[in-house]
Design a protein that fits this description.
Two copies of one chain form a homodimer.
Chain A lengths: L3 E3 L10 E6 L10 E16 L7 H9 L4 E11 L5 H18 L7 E8 L6 H14 L8 H4 L8 E8 L4 E9 L12 E6 L5 H13 L5 E2 L9 E6 L13 H23 L7 E9 L2 H12 L2 H8 L5 H9 L11 E4 L2 E5 L2 E2 L3 H8 L3 E7 L5 E8 L3 H7 L4
Parallel strand pairs in A: 4-5, 8-10, 9-16, 11-15
Antiparallel strand pairs in A: 1-6, 2-3, 3-4, 3-10, 6-7, 7-8, 11-16, 12-13, 12-15, 13-14
Helix pairs in contact in A: 1-2, 2-3, 5-6
Chain lengths: 400, 400
């Protein structure tokens, strides 16, 4: 029995959360700035990009989360404020400051995030106007347009909300995300903002977020590139007044399970909305010596342009998958490798089974499962990726 | 003063080398099988793919080269004979055997190579007919069509020939290669057959080939994929009767220099003929802590789909290059990084210089040089890559 259920809702389903999304002119005629605000300060946790070029907002938000507390998030799209030197750093700080002032908060209770073009200074006059307008517009009534305001090349807003039935209380958890390109399974490789009204200790909030990130945003890949700006933030304002979750009890397990669900759904939406993507492909590698080796092979397959273009062409070119396994850097025994497209075994002990025509039916579908069995041990890992299309190239040639 | 010069020629410029290229029906109406034959047995060296799934011909040719001697090469295109199990292994062996019989050689003097589709058994009846015909057709007169017979998705045959002026003798060196897709800078990632009439010891021949491969085929990347079939073979039949090169003297240096030239030219032809490629991009990384770190960063940039699509679009999206440096796994200091497009400095100390419009002129060219200076030490590495186009996707969707 599931003790949580997905509901039609938004960040506003979470008690005490207000949002505002405005168009301040960074992007032409599109929502490009959002503020998420909690009526009360809460515990908060974050996971940030491991890219050596970390954008100014990443550095500032990580610093603000030192004490694991936050009350507001300000995020703009259209400009990443990355590789912008000291001016960029000051602009990110000012964005946090004006948001804090408008909401009557200390600056370190504000998380600041940016996504979009690298290397261009934020237009601070527009940001100032946008933040002021958003602070005035904050509301708890529908529609919540924050998921739309954080989009870049995304083709649809991404939002998932659940109601969790704790033993004595209903708790809500909701998240928004943006992705599309530059998604590598190696960190919180996009923007994701999660809010919950659960009462939960900072230590367990961080633990739950790390675990959820590991099985969601860390196992998806669009093009193998990793951004300078990615972050996942989880804010828990405690307004549900449940018995505080301070140890790894049943309530914590339930919260974790729900958080895993929300983050995986958001991650899969990112894959399905991969730039130019037409298919979502799950790659399961099992029988590896250990999880790490399984993961490396799964990622190598998921990031091979030849594998991804073959999926786009709906062609059963399984040799490309074997070649990717072969150059993954992991030692394998070719004669033991089995490969399945859905239920169809296409390679047995390293050689083709001649079942290509049966696999073609599988390849026509939008959601495809590939399973590699190395027959070397008990290590297993799963990665989600998308196909590689001409539209990916068009989108990323930079003419848009 | 250069002691070697490129000449209009072919494998047939090398004393005692005969070639034949035939169409035996593996590919439709195209040359698909070649035999290269030396009038006398010679010393030989090879470099083979490190892919764990090594095709049958790779296994057999490596075994045949155990004694560093060879006299003939038989190669087919259109079918890779990879992932074909024991039947495939026997077919590769039989291909070597019938070639050896037709040429009256011991089987282990024959190198066998295949390139093309993975996972399909060789049509042995066609191979038998083709080998018989090629053995009859062997000739020392033009045209040499072997470079054409080994093409797969290549759009032009690749061949380079030089005359080397040793102190007392003229020596010839000629090579053919095929590439196009699945080229990763990690091994002899394509087929290349080199012949020379120099007298040179097996040890120095191997040493020269390894060094030449390291600065040519190992520093090019089309899509980051690495094939199951790649090999570079160098056959030295000694018919030039020069003073034997048995130590690292001036003659050896000269031979090495010429071999480096031939292999780098062939490697660059492969990049220029990358599937769907419109540009050849040289990525130089300097100022790294060591060569290995420079290499890893150069490859990460060269294999980023976002970087490659931006080059295709001729857009100065330098943030993508910085992001790739940042996720390369090498620790760097962002504030020290400089980036140049040709002579135009586009990033200074980790931030943009605003010179994008000057860079646009550079980006319109067919041959582009990018230089990253990390300012951390003396490590340097160079990688050649191509841009990423819609045609790459079309070619690799598998409809051709």
């Amino acid at each position: 029995m599931k003790n949580f259920s997905e509901i039609k809702g938004s960040l506003l389903s979470v008690r005490g959360i207000h949002t505002a999304a405005v168009s301040c002119g960074i992007k032409k005629d599109k929502k490009d700035l959002a503020v998420i605000y909690s009526e009360v300060e809460g515990n908060a946790a974050g996971v940030f990009t491991t890219n050596a070029f970390r954008a100014a907002p990443v550095l500032i938000s990580e610093a603000h989360l030192q004490n694991s507390r936050a009350q507001a998030i300000v995020v703009n799209s259209g400009n990443a404020n990355a590789c912008t030197g000291t001016v960029g750093f000051e602009n990110a700080r000012e964005t946090a400051k004006i948001t804090a002032d408008a909401l009557h908060l200390p600056i370190n209770k504000v998380i600041v995030a940016s996504t979009g073009m690298i290397g261009i200074q934020l237009p601070m006059d527009r940001i100032r106007e946008g933040v002021a307008k958003a602070a005035r517009d904050l509301r708890r009534s529908v529609p919540d347009e924050s998921a739309e305001a954080i989009m870049t090349t995304d083709t649809f807003p991404k939002s998932v909300t659940v109601k969790i039935n704790l033993p004595e209380h209903e708790v809500f958890l909701s998240g928004i995300a943006k992705g599309a390109g530059m998604i590598k399974p190696n960190m919180a490789t996009m923007l994701c903002f999660l809010c919950t009204d659960a009462v939960i200790s900072p230590r367990l909030l961080k633990k739950a977020l790390l675990w959820a990130t590991d099985q969601s945003f860390h196992v998806i890949s669009i093009d193998g590139d990793m951004s300078t700006n990615d972050m996942v933030i989880l804010l828990a304002n405690g307004l549900a007044q449940n018995t505080p979750i301070t140890e790894e009890n049943d309530a914590f397990s339930l919260f974790q399970e729900a958080l895993n669900f929300v983050t995986l759904q958001l991650a899969l939406m990112i894959v399905r909305d991969g730039e130019g993507a037409t298919k979502c492909i799950e790659i399961l590698v099992r029988g590896a010596r250990n999880k790490g080796e399984a993961k490396q092979i799964a990622h190598t397959i998921a990031e091979s342009p030849l594998v991804k273009t073959a999926f786009h062409g709906e062609r059963c070119l399984w040799g490309r998958i074997l070649a990717a396994i072969g150059y993954s850097g992991i030692s394998i025994i070719p004669d033991r490798v089995n490969l399945f497209y859905g239920p169809v075994q296409i390679v047995s002990k390293g050689a083709g089974t001649g079942q290509e025509s049966a696999a073609l039916e599988i390849l026509k579908q939008k959601e495809i499962k590939i399973m590699v069995d190395l027959n070397l041990g008990g290590g297993e890992a799963r990665v989600f990726t998308c196909d590689f299309s001409k539209d990916y190239v068009t989108i990323n040639m930079g003419y848009s």
